[in-house]
Amino acid sequence: METQPSFVLMLLAAMRFCARADDSSTSPSTIDHILAERGYDRHLRPNFGGAPVVVRVSMSIASIDQVSEVNMDYMVTIFLRQYWQDNRLAFEGTTANLTLDGRLSDRLWVPDLFIPNSKQAFLHKVTVDNKLLRLHPDGTVLYGQRITAKVACTMDLRNYPLDEQNCTLQYESYGYTTQDVLFLWKDGNASIHGLEDIEIAQFDIGGFTTSENHGYYETGEYPRLTFCFRLHRNVVFIILQTYLPAILLVISSWVSFFINPEAVPARVTLGITTVLTMTTLSSAAKESLPKISYIKAIDVYLAMCFFFVFAALLEYAIVNFSSVGIAKKQASLQGQQEKSECHVCRCHDVEARVGGLNGVSSQHTLRVDIENEAAQKETSFSLPDDVKDQCKSRGTFLPTQSSYADGAYPTDAGLDDGEGKSRWPLAAAVTTMLHHIYGRRPQIKNSNNIDKYSRVMFPLLFVVLNIVYWSVYLYRRHYFVVF
To answer: Is the Cα torsion angle 378, 381, 387, 389 positive or negative in sign?
Structure first.
């Protein structure tokens, strides 16, 4: 059997004493004595005063979870491994590697690596400190740790929930600049292990990259390693939780188009209930998101659904208003028809009275009588065409609606039409324009037609807007990385 060098035997003996509880108080001094014989000082880096120490890094990812859009961070558990060469720990006589107690790392120089973009982190210590220390004959040291950290991840949520996020994990030297220590990935992208087996709620992991760069601070230039991975959000959960209920609420608001307009309590209750429910759904969806200034994709969709729900409520207000107006108009037309019939009867009575007078023109008397009566009581009165024809055939003068409807008054009213227009030209122009617009408005003859058109127009417009929405945001998701 090949003889071990004295340094290795003494080191193994020290480790055995370190494992015994009764000698634990004397073990540190023993280990320090062994390392002191080799001229080892853990406060000085390897190659002190010479070339920088090259530290190669690899890691295995155990889990990624708790990805939070509100706090913009995620939790990650990793097995971090660092490799560097320390000639002060080299030994001869064997090619076997020595696996040492991880607690011995407190007696050796180790890189001061930390995670600059972490919010909080800790080392696992159950049942012992989760550390790995392995020594190679050429002095190469393998130092492994199990770390859990909450790492910041800046997210762009403009396409939420149809978004993809880039998250990073960085390593950096806290005290040693690039003149003392250099960090390199051990095998490039192959230095990352276990990522293909990770499952994250609401996300699928896409590609990843590794890079080596520097961090610049006031105190100097420090080595930095960056691991960047891409998260693809699984939109199925958001569709079931938010989009589908919003669509069903919009469809529920269309039920009012099939309810009789005279059922006022039913239609008003349905409209107000859908509006309030849509407001509650929008508030619940925003609670899981940070308060950011820009508009997200889900905000656009919820606003669109809220518009349709509120428009359905306004549609019934228009239907109700139109039905009341039509009813009043029909009642007015019926009253005018009754008045016209009475007026015709009055014309016959007047002709009969004046027919027997001698020396006075009955036609002239009838004209004056009718003109005075119409000017006093019926300035805006209009007769049906058949009544007008009967009176014209008798030669009877009748006031027309156009004589007074346009703002013209009899000359004895003391108003000069031309003078009024010259005094208020802007008011006259605005009044004329409003009369023109009001006269060109669409005439609704039956309020039920509004419901009939709404039954087709609302679903058609909603489908078109959904096609546009999903086409735009799915295109942006697949063809744009940074917005």
So the answer is: positive
DSSP label of 94 = -
174-188 pLDDT per residue, tens:
999 999 999 999 999
User: What predicted TM-score, i.e. pTM, was given to this entire model?
Assistant: 0.67
Per-residue model confidence (pLDDT) at position 378: 46
Q: Is 29 helix (H, G, I), strand (E, B) or coil?
A: helix
Q: Comparing 42 with 403, which gets the higher pLDDT?
A: 42
Contact 251, 309 (CB under 8 A): no
At 135, is the secondary structure helix, strand, or coil? strand
Q: Which strand (E) or helix (H) includes residue 225?
A: strand 220-233
Contact between 351 and 292 (Cβ < 8 Å): no
Question: What band does 85 get if pLDDT is binned at 50, 70 and 90?
Answer: very high
Please check whether residue 102 is in contact with residue 127, taking contact to mean a CB–CB distance below 8 angstroms. Answer: no
Cα→Cα distances 397→128, 239, 348, Å: 116, 74, 14
The predicted pLDDT at position 123 comes to 93
C-beta separation of 181 from 57 below 8 A? no
Q: Say if CB 296 and CB 160 are below 8 A apart.
A: yes
- Give the amino acid at 111: P
- Characterize 108-142 residue by residue with b for buried, 16 or more Cβ atoms within 10 angstroms of its Cβ, and e for exposed: bbbbebebebbeeeeeeeeeeeebbbbbbbeebbb
* CA distance linking residue 272 with residue 265, whole number of Å: 11
What pLDDT was estimated at residue 395? 52
Residue 83 to residue 86: CA distance in whole angstroms: 10
CA-CA distance, 284 to 279, in Å (whole number)? Answer: 9
